[in-house]
Amino acid sequence: MGELTLAEKTQTAVKMKLAAELDDLIRQRGLSKSDFTDCVGKHPSEITNWLSGMHNFTSETLSEIAVSQL
Question: What GO MF annotations does this protein's record show (predicted)?
Fold first, then answer.
């Protein structure tokens, strides 16, 4: 495989930052990942994927997080 393009590197950095900020928010609220799973109504495997730093968040997913009981 060749080198990553600047756009790919930037996209990866943004995904990682978003996952880290979401994880920080969950911790700041004193929630476990299980609690957060309940707040957003998702399966634990999906939350694990979100927090992996490789998930491609859609505007719908971000909206769901924003209106959750966080």
Answer: DNA binding
